[in-house]
Amino acid sequence: MTTPQLYTVIALAIYAVTMALIGCISYGKSKTLDGFLLGGRKIGAWSTAFAYGSAYFSAVVFIGYAGQHGWNIGIGAVWIGIGNTVIGCLLSWLLFANKTRKMTKKLNARTMPDYFEKRYASKGMKILAAAIIFVFLVPYSAAVYKGLGSLFSAVFPSVDTWVWMLIIACLTAVYLVAGGYIATAYTNLIQGIIMLVGVICLVVAVLSHDAVGGISGLIENLGKFQSLPTDPNPTTGAQLTDIFGGSSFKFLCFNIMLTSFGTWGLPQMIGKFYAIKDTAAIKRGTIISTIFCIVIGCGAYLIGSTSRLILGGQLPEGGVDAVIPALLMEVLGGGTLGIILLAIIMILLLSASMSTLEAVVLTSASAVAVDLIPAVSKKEIPAKKQMLLTRTLCLVFVACSFVFATQNIPIIVSLMSFSWGIVSGCFIGPYIWGLFSKKITKIGAYAGILSGLLTVGGATLVISLNSGFGAAASKSPEMGVAAMAISFVVVPVVSLLTKNKAKEQERVEEIFTCYKEETE
């Protein structure tokens, strides 16, 4: 075993024991469904803020998006991190956190499908929403495994990628099944601290590399960059230093909109607002989460923008997904300090991936156990059985996502690229308008969900028939943004044409009293 491998194994062992202990400690506080899914709605500012941020940025962001966009776009890719911070984090907290907390508490809603059922008095909408979550979020978690597995394989080339995927699955299952949301809140706090320290150290190490030469050197050296004759994606120094992305401006804009506005409708992100304890915690959490996102988001894409310099313009074997792993080995592969930092970075990416994975798994499991099964069976499930079912499904979903990731099924991987846009495109309109307007009707909410689904589904079908599924996958950012915009517009327009009846309007008026009541 080499020195980098030894340090990584030691760090991994310490991390694994810590996560397992947190799960065991949290078990006693998660014996009720509210405790398991929402932590009793008593989660503080720091835990919620770090839970939100660490669920936002996984290894897919570092290894996939930061590597790909940093390599192809250059400095302009940092705008994605800025957009994620301002739109995806700051505005989300300012606009939705307090209203979501108050309304879901008034409705006693534990999940996004539960919120739809009680806000719009529609069990069918609950079933539809739960089905969408189940179909599109489980494949999303598979990409988290694959992104992290590829990095560990770079450090341990003799160990199969599936072994690391299995370790990730087991670690996540232990503390998630045992402690539920309370365990994830505590672990997210630790994971968030690791992520902050790791990214700051990595940015310093990357910018200090001889090929980069600091911020000024980065801009100067990228400006002089010339692609190798063998480069499959040749570019120019002017492209890489263009602050607005140069020829990739349109592509950059759509990615900013998809990954930033997308959080406004993702149940695994919005669910964090259900559990925060009070308005004071929301105010503190807004600041903490924004600082976290600017460091992690901008740091990741800044690191990606240095990749062509550090790797000498040579795209690694494995393509853009191998850019960040190769960069890390180049920057941190030598010297004791570099090896220690490499171990920290490995745990950073493990933390980022596990926090995203646990959020997705908990959302998917609760959608089936709390929303889908009781609604379809039309039977009231006793609380103890529902708790057992939820824990079991968490385990099942971890296992399913692991299996999907190891099979290398092309349709699963391609489906991943649509999941963010489809889920948010379906939910963003009904969720946001339901918080702000008393005039939104059940038919309007249904129209929003279906329009988002049909926008992506219809466009995918047409493009696939004409140009193949690969062409459709390349258009997923545009389709996702279109779905969100259409859903957001359709909901109020259809509601205007289908006004609530008097009895239903009285029910809605009662729901909106939650904003006047101070129950803290």
Please explain how this structure is put together.
It is a single chain. By secondary structure, this protein is mainly alpha-helical. It folds into two domains: 3-407, Sodium/glucose cotransporter (Up-down Bundle), CATH 1.20.1730; 409-520, no CATH class. It is 79% helix and 0% strand. It has helices at 3-26, 33-38, 45-56, 59-72, 78-107, 112-120, 123-155, 161-207, 214-223, 237-241, 249-261, 267-275, 279-305, 307-310, 323-332, 336-377, 383-407, 410-436, 442-467, 469-474, 476-497, 502-511. The N and C termini lie far apart (55 Å).
Question: Which properties best describe this structure?
Answer:
mainly alpha; single chain; 22 helices; Sodium/glucose cotransporter; 0% strand; 520 residues
